[in-house]
Amino acid sequence: MYPNAFDYYRAASVPDAIALLQEHPDAKLIAGGHSLLPMMKLRLVSPPALIDLGGIPGLASIREEADAIVIGAGTTYDDLINSDIINETLPIIAEAASVVGDLQVRNRGTIGGSLAHADPASDMPAVMLALGATIKAVGPGGERTIPADDFFVEFFTTALQPDEVLTEISVPRPKAGTGMAYEKFAQPASGYAIVGVAAVIGRNSDGKAESVRVAITGAGPVVRHAQATEDALRGTVPDADSIKQASQQATEGMEFMGDIHASEEYRAHLTRVFTERALTKAVQRSGG
Description:
Blueprint: E1 7-10, H1 14-23, E2 28-30, H2 36-41, E3 49-52, E4 62-64, E5 68-72, H3 77-81, H4 84-89, H5 91-97, H6 103-108, H7 111-117, H8 124-131, E6 134-139, E7 142-147, H9 148-151, E8 152-154, E9 157-158, E10 165-172, E11 178-186, E12 193-203, E13 209-217, E14 224-225, H10 227-233, H11 240-247, H12 264-285
Parallel strand pairs: 1-3, 2-3
Antiparallel strand pairs: 4-5, 5-10, 6-7, 6-10, 8-9, 11-12, 12-13, 13-14
Helix pairs in contact: 10-11, 11-12
């Protein structure tokens, strides 16, 4: 199926993109297009105009700051996979990017597009939530920062305003003793997560988990923390038994989706299993 007719605009800068959004309030922003264009071909969405961000200088970048790694919204999955900075400092990002879709998607898809699209089965929202990232948005009133904890609102919905552009993501540098891992059960044809779990654990010199962040994607209508699991492990010296017990609590307070790929009950089961796998790997990588 072909998409409905639409107008096409190529933004030369972020201010230009914002001006185009104000001129065409029903337009959609497009970066790599690997999420939006398939939906347009199926006519699930039919925007009257597309505003292409691909020509904006500086949006595809990875830089180091004193306390953070800053990733431009136009950075592709392939860029993340092959970045020395990412692999050395935030390997969970490269790990998750390497299991996104297929080669074509990884070459074209962008981290900013993934976050702004907020597909409930995509990988990067869970990773950014687990890392405690902050998202920068620029609009007519200037720029603002949005914690990842507040960014993903509901099904395909974020805290971005209609006339804002997501420009970069800032991820805190992990402290010594931090381990991180991403594990997912993928839908074979698309590569989307039926359930995906991102886990980041920071431990002190005594081996106790000072910080625990676990995020679940694919299971429900929006990515979310496994709060009960985080609370159960925080302040403990995690071992196989405590990880297993904490993982059993990952489904508490969760809303699960059922579809042709997996029932609600199966997604709940996968959530517990993959939470245990991600936590086990994260603890091992933290030096445990």
